[in-house]
Specification:
heterodimer; A: alpha/beta; D-Maltodextrin-Binding Protein, domain 2; 2 domains; five-stranded mixed beta sheet; B: about 290 residues; mainly alpha; about 0% strand; Sperm_putr-bd (chain A); polyamine binding (chain A); signal (chain A); Spermidine/putrescine ABC transporter substrate-binding protein (chain A); SBP (chain A)
Chain lengths: ~350, ~290
């Protein structure tokens, strides 16, 4: 072998070695068990499976509490990743169900909007943000209401009696009424709860019906049973995408922001694949697809250039940075708060009956 | 003798074990849960307490909703009975046996379809832009659509529709078992159709009626799907309170509510049993 041949062979060997190493990193193989809401992350999984050769077994749940219960029931060492949000990651951490995330292992983390890169007060990252948006909003059909709606005061003015729909979720009703009554979001005193109960009691006779989820809201608006409805931004966009002639209102009294994302389950059987999935879910490509498929705003700012101008306007991503700095995020206020909210909401519903 | 006892044990052990595992154990677990509570982190605290029952007793919401559910279940039972009795009588007395089988099947087969789909179909029928209003408006019988959806009446209509086969089958079987010679004897002795129905047919088919009423009333009282889909705010029943508690993962409170419902149904059965001697009626004995 002459010098030239030796150099060529070395270069080939080096290339092969590097490629092989790269391939080994990409193709993780095996499988991971993931807990998520239904139809929320499914669109992103085929690309992940193809890239890493890892099969994703997805298990659905209806609420964060159900997810935490499933992890406890199955035992640690069963699930790898769980999607949680609005403070439930803190509860799951306190319960020893999830581990802190080493964000240095996520190549896309540095591209997230600044507020999503901040660790918790504990200095740890318990979750990486997959999506975020606003809740406590109003959807309405202007053709039916005959004019614009800007606030809760407008909704419950008496003009739309029997044409209003409410979401049947005690927590949501608590913070919607909280803003309506002029309070700040957060823990409430007994007097404040009494005011919220009164606010709901005054509103309920004007309500036509309640619904469990935003698909149902879209059906009720489409059938003309209701003209005005409680919504979040994603629920509104999905209804609008079905061709409903509805408008979205950020109530003057206030609204709240939500966030959610994947967490690393403690003792995950396949942690490397779990980290790869976390990184995949916050990649610009997946985040852009999230906006296109489900109408939720991306948490990774590099996804923005991948969206067309119309979708950027719909999702409000051009103002995302400014909005993120002024909006208040929902958090977990504990089981006692939820029990009280449920009590107040059940009583308000019973009054109508 | 010992051999007979062995055979009896072999026959009894499988059903008794099944009952123990699938019925006694879950209800006992639920009863135990009802004396526990959850902490602020949604974890169950395993200390015996009466907190959940005190909460139910202190708030009129729970007992009021229980009474309301009993009322709805009673209306459903009466509605299903009012439809099943003449229908069964007509099928047995006036329809040829070969056609009768098809008609009974036609009434039962829709029950094989998911209750969600069947209830949702009512949504499309009685909704403001639904079939019923379209027909009435097209025929010029009404000027404004009737707002029936999300009312108590809608819930009762839905429940009667869902539970009709539960009432129909035992009544149909009881009427089919009727001895014609007894009715002929009454006729020969001068009893008219109304008298024959009131004094001969009705007492003889009473076991079927009672069985139908019981198996309609009990599930209707714990119902939550139909009230949710057709009743909206007007249709909140005790089953909906239980669902909310369990979906909040407040298992102790959900268990306590379930135990209250179970206790109330058992109390109803005991009271009715005292008056009507249910055991005999259920067995079809005189």
């Amino acid at each position: 072998m002459n010098r030239r041949q030796l150099l060529a062979a070395s270069a080939a060997g080096l290339t092969l070695g590097l490629t092989g190493r790269g391939w080994a990193q990409e193709k993780l193989g095996g499988s991971i068990n993931v807990l998520s809401w239904g139809n929320y992350i499914d669109f992103a999984l085929p690309a992940f499976e193809e890239k890493h050769g890892t099969k994703v077994n997805i298990d659905y749940y209806a609420s964060e509490k159900e997810a935490m219960n499933k992890i406890r029931a199955a035992g640690l060492g069963t699930y790898d990743v769980v999607f949680l949000g609005v403070g439930y990651e803190e509860v799951a951490m306190r319960q020893g169900l999830i581990d802190a995330i080493d964000v240095d292992r996520l190549s896309n983390f540095k591209d997230m909007y600044a507020p999503f890169q901040k660790p918790k007060e504990s200095g740890q990252h318990e979750l990486v943000t997959y999506s975020w948006g606003a809740n406590g909003l109003i959807a309405y059909n202007p053709a039916k209401t005959g004019g614009p709606i800007k606030s809760w005061k407008d909704v419950y003015s008496g003009k739309y009696k029997g044409r209003i729909g409410k979401i049947d979720k005690a927590n949501e009703q608590a913070y919607r009424s909280c803003f309506q009554a002029g309070f700040e979001y957060g823990p409430l005193t007994e007097e404040q709860w009494a005011t919220i109960a009164k606010t709901l009691e005054a509103d309920m006779p004007q309500v036509r019906t309640i619904y469990q989820h935003y698909d149902e809201m879209a059906q009720l608006l489409a059938a003309g049973e209701i003209w005005i409805a409680d919504t979040d931004d994603g629920g509104f966009r999905q209804a609008k995408a079905k061709g409903l002639p509805i408008e979205l209102v950020y109530p003057e009294e206030g609204f709240i922001a939500w966030y959610d994302g994947p967490c690393l389950v403690k003792d995950a059987p396949n942690p490397d694949a779990a980290y790869a999935l976390l990184d995949h879910m916050i990649s610009p490509e997946t985040q852009a697809q999230l906006g296109k498929e489900l109408g939720y705003a991306p948490a990774n700012q590099k996804a923005v250039p991948l969206l067309d101008a119309e979708l950027r306007a719909t999702l409000g991503v051009d103002d995302a940075e400014a909005n993120l700095n002024r909006v208040q995020f929902q958090r977990n206020l504990g089981a006692a708060y939820e029990t009280k909210a449920t009590e107040v909401w059940q009583k308000a519903k019973a009054l109508v009956r | 003798m010992a051999n007979e006892r062995g055979q009896l044990a072999c026959l009894l052990v499988p059903p008794l074990l099944t009952l123990l595992i699938l019925f006694v154990a879950p209800i006992s677990l639920m009863a135990i849960h009802s004396f526990w509570a959850i902490n602020d982190d949604y974890l169950v605290e395993h200390s015996l307490q009466l907190t959940q029952y005190e909460k139910i007793a202190a708030d009129p919401l729970y007992l009021g909703t229980l009474a309301g559910s009993a009322g709805m279940a009673l209306m459903t039972t009466i509605g299903a009975l009012a439809l099943s009795l003449p229908l069964s009588y007509f099928l047995v007395r006036f329809v040829p046996p070969r056609l009768r089988v098809f008609l009974v099947l036609a009434l039962i087969v829709p029950g094989w379809v998911s209750v969600l789909i069947r209830t949702y179909s009512w949504n499309l029928v009685i909704g403001e832009a639904g079939l019923m209003n379209w027909l009435l408006l097209s025929a010029g019988l009404i000027e404004e659509p009737i707002r029936l959806l999300f009312t108590k009446a809608a819930v009762v209509i839905g429940l009667v529709y869902i539970y009709l086969p539960y009432m129909l089958v035992p009544i149909y079987a009881a009427i089919e078992r009727l001895d014609n010679s007894v009715l002929e004897a009454a006729e020969n002795l001068g009893a008219g159709p109304a008298r024959r129905f009131a004094f001969i047919t009705l007492p003889l088919i009473a076991p079927g009626i009672i069985a139908g009423c019981i198996i309609t009333f009990i599930p209707a009282m714990g119902e939550y799907v139909v009230p949710n889909m057709l009743g909206g705010l007007q249709g909140v029943m005790f089953g909906n309170l239980i669902t909310t508690a369990f979906s909040n993962f407040d298992w102790p409170f959900g268990s306590a509510l379930s135990m209250v419902l179970l206790g109330s149904i058992l109390a109803c059965l005991l009271i009715v049993g005292r008056f009507l001697n249910i055991n005999r009626s259920m067995l079809g004995q005189e």
